[in-house]
Protein 1
Amino acid sequence: MKVLLVNPYIYDVSAYDYWLKPVGLLYIATALEKVNIEVRLLDLLDRHLPGNNTHNGPYGTGKFLSIIVKSLMNEYGIPRYLKRYGAPEEVLDSLDFSPDVVLITSMMTYWYGGIFETIKMIKKRFNVPIILGGNYPTLLPKHAKLSGADVIVEGDGIPKIYNILETVTGTKFEHPIGENWFEEITPDYSLYPTIESAVVHTTFGCPYRCTYCVAWKKGFKVRTTDSVLKEINELKKRGVKDIAFYDDAILVKRERFKEILKKLPTDVRYHLPNGIHAKLLDKEIANLLKEKNFHTIRIGYETGNVTLQKKTGAKVNNTEFHRAVELLKNAGFNSKDIGVYLIVGLPGQSFESALEDIKHVAQVGAKPVINEYTLIPGSADWKLALKQGSIDENIDPLILNNSLMSYWWKSSMGIKKIGVLKNIVQRFITGKISLEELLEFGAEKKIAF
Ligand code: B12
Ligand code: SF4
């Protein structure tokens, strides 16, 4: 049997490759290879595909090819262009593979347009069953039925994959991989002819329950240190130069993470693009991160407003945050290295409060990194918004995009204010204004909106 694995296009107003890899699909590839199924990967976001790399950023990040799909003005009253990110359609024609089944993954729910278009392109070329899994059908199963896929799969796809293929094709397989997949297999990166950066998970899911997030719905799995180190050493042998840890909660099993850190090879660069938990960082980890060649560090601070911190799940408090920044600075990281995620546009958050957070992060010697708020289907915030009537259940998921929500959602501080905040951060981090000027911003007179 032949199975084509597809990472679909992104539809967004902006997108950037922060080491993005379709990890779920690569795990599925390994599970299928165990029963001698022939697999092929079509990662439409792979910047090694012809025409898909428009800019190389630092450490293996970069820009995808983008083409404008439409203006969002007429339909949504939003003055932005929706773009398609990913390789030119011709890459599908150069596929020298005729699959019996196609499996498609998905990451952001609001990227669904890219999934619909990818499915149309596949259907034009192959008359075979298409199975869609990943975050989109997991969080929006009803909407995903409109995608054109023949089967949609909610939740963890790996233990179910043999059953699904048996149902669709009528062929029986052994089921060598089940619930323990996270320990037993690793993503099959050999499906990429060229690979310079890769993603590794040492844990999966999150035990916390922040109101704006759904990562906790995946439960919480932990791998042994040996299997993590083996995977990293194999990636290194393949020529991988940058490894991004995509864990949601990497410090939760702190002692275990220390064991991993101590044995990491240092001739690879490491990145933590997902916010780490300030309260769980200690001196030893901070020093090991520096010693072991970590270049991208993000702390998930989100807000310094104590009321909002408590209301959203209390994953961090201000004392813990200060302590974490100090530990990282003492370990030798500078203010550019320590990125601090701040959510702007949280329900109930004022412009003044968000501005205060930005100033505060800059003042303690770290770099503010703004994340615009997005209401994630299935989160506690989502349920509350439905109950309060501030959104409708049948809302188009596209406009829940983090870059679009503040244009229309009444519970957000609004796009004008967010624009001012983003602009001031940009000017600060590019050196156009000094720390003193940032701290003075808005102090003399109230900003008029
Ligand atoms: C890494 C990551 C990032 C990175 C990289 C993204 C990038 N652009 O390069 C960074 C840190 C930059 C990032 C940013 C953001 N992220 Co993010 N991110 C993730 C994260 C942690 C990991 C994804 C992953 O690799 N998972 C591991 C794999 C193994 O899981 P999986 O793909 O889901 O696969 C499993 C199943 O889904 C299924 N499956 C998958 N594919 C298939 C296919 C088939 C056929 C089958 C049967 C099954 C199946 O089986 C797999 C095994 O269980 C997820 C959370 C999570 N734990 O998934 C959030 C997540 C995807 N991000 C999320 C959000 C909200 C964001 C931001 C918008 C945050 C913000 N406000 O700015 C930004 C914007 C990103 C953008 N525009 O690109 C949300 C998605 C919300 C949504 N509406 O869909 C998530 C779910 C986290 C959350 N907060 O709840 N993110
Ligand atoms: S925001 Fe972070 S700590 Fe909170 S539930 Fe999501 S992944 Fe876990």
Protein 2
Amino acid sequence: MLQQIIKKINCPNCSVENEVILWEKVNVDMNPDLKEKLFTEKINNLVCNKCGFVSRIDIPFYYNDAKAKFFIYLVPEFPIDKKEEDLLLANLRSQTLNILDSGYNNRKRIVFEYYNMLEKILIFDAKLDDRVVEGCKILARTQLKLMEGRAAFHKFENDELAFNFFEKEEKEAAKSFSVPKAMYDEIAEIINKKDLESGDNFRIVDVKYAVRMLMN
Ligand SMILES: [Zn+2]
């Protein structure tokens, strides 16, 4: 399976044309070193051969962990409306029907931002359910009045889920907060009762999902 493409891209700084090798798919069990490169943002970068300027090239990107069985599809463009979103989900479903077995159920996701992909990887690596993590996040943020900006799962340690909080547009975390595992378990119970969709579809599990599950 071809995993890389070569593209000609003009440097956003000096406009010189560069040839860049871009990864479209990462099978983490086959290329474990690529995972680290994802987290350190050393992948799909254009390093200009003339001026040295570094910029990330956002292309549609698959991340597949065949051992832990989760699949994340990063789409750099938000769907415009519900119709476009449904089409995207349906296409992805038909493309992956023969690749992903039922072991992937409830761990097939679409994200629209690079950092959301990294967060999903951390959540699934910690053997947590991202639907429940989103629930924990929205409840804690409401309570702490941390609504402007974004929160991201960081790690699961000492029976607590730790989150980082980023002020608007900031790259470094300004604050952090944690949620006890007992609360996670309570929310898991609510979501398992309320979420009746079968797990074999690709889904967008984000703050809107959490609001639908817990705030309505
Ligand atoms: Zn340049």
